Each structure stands twice: as structure tokens, then as C-alpha cells.
Amino acid sequence: MKTHRKTQSRTGFTLMELMVAMAITTIIVTVLVSITSIATDTWNRSRAELRAMRQGKAMVESMARDFEALVVRKGNEFEWLSAETPQSMPGGSGGNLESSNACDLIFFTAATDRYEGKIGTSTDKGGDVSCVAYKLEYRDPIDAGGSSGNEFKTFVL
Q1: What is the reported pLDDT for 97?
Q2: How does strand 154-156 pair with strand 103-109?
Q3: Residue (of 87, 92, 118) closest to 103 by Cα position
Q4: CA-closest candidate to residue 135, choices 64, 78, 92, 84
Q5: What single-letter DSSP state applies at residue 72?
Q6: CA 137 to CA 89: how far, in whole Å?
Q7: What is the pLDDT of residues 23-32, one digit of tens each?
Q8: DSSP element (H, E) containing 38
């Protein structure tokens, strides 16, 4: 009697198939990581722009409230609004960066947002008129110790 040996067929992947699968997986992961990095950078940049816009809007709204409540009283010799510009204009020495926009504003305002609407109450600390000053000043971030060297000369309030 003859006995036949059953040959078992081997199941599984060959080494070459595993290496190809790993290479494809590595390429896919690399592409996903780079896309995620780009998306994160874009999100951070747009978040910073939104923050700057929100802060700018809050500043402009505060200034608008101050100007809307500007106090000017007639019949006296007092200066209720002072607007001054410097004698020498700020900016670079090259002449093309100089600006005439730098100024100082000092005025009196009765903006109620500083008192939370509690004018004339027992918690009132000195009246409803405040002296407000705004100064638009030239700043040179490059000479002020900017680290990356890519900063531009700007006006800041």
C-alpha cells in the first residue's frame, strides 16, 4: 500500500509582498503627515490673523466711543482737544520711509464704558469726564532687536 503524503500549501505573504506593502504604507503616511503639517500651519496663520483683526476691531471701537463722547465746553480758555505732530517726522533716514501720520491726541471724553454706567452713584470715583491720550508712534522692529531679520518697519498704536 502506498501512502501519499499530502503537501501542505503554504499560506501567507512572501517577503517581497511585505516589503512592497510597507513601502506603500510609508509613502501614504509621509503624504498624510506633510498634508497635516501644511493644514496646521495654515490654521495657525489664519488664527493669528483673526486674533489681530479682533484686537484691531476692539481698539477701533474703543476709540470710536471716546471720540463720540468727546467733551468740549465753551466759554473758557481751556484746551479741550490737543493734536500735535512732531517737528521732525519719524521714519527711516532714507526719506522714503518718513511719514507725517505720527501724532499725539489728548482730549476729554465722557465715555460711560469706563464706569459701567454707574455715574453719580456712591461708587463713582471722580466724575464722568476722563482725559484720554492717543499716540501714534513710529517703531522700527529691525533696530529694536528683531531676531529673524524679516520684520518690516511699521506704525503701532
Answers
A1: 57
A2: unpaired
A3: 87
A4: 84
A5: -
A6: 10
A7: 999 999 999 9
A8: helix 15-68
Region class of 116: left (phi > 0), else alpha (psi between -120 and 50), else beta = left
Distance (Å, whole) CA 138 – CA 98: 9
Residues 98/92, Cβ–Cβ less than 8 Å: yes
Contacts (Cβ under 8 Å, ≥6 apart) of 106: 81, 82, 131, 132, 133
Q: Is the pLDDT of residue 52 over 60?
A: yes
Cell numbers found for residue 120 = 453719580
- Name which of 156, 58, 69 is nearest 107 in CA terms: 69
Sheet holding 130-139, edge to edge: 81-84, 103-109, 130-139, 154-156
Average pLDDT over residues 103-108: 87
Residue 135: strand pairing partners:
104
Question: Who has greater pLDDT, 104 or 152?
Answer: 104
Please compute the mean of the pLDDT values over residues 65-71 and round it to a whole number: 86
* Rounded distance between C-alpha atoms, residue 148 and residue 108, angstroms: 41
pTM of this prediction? 0.54
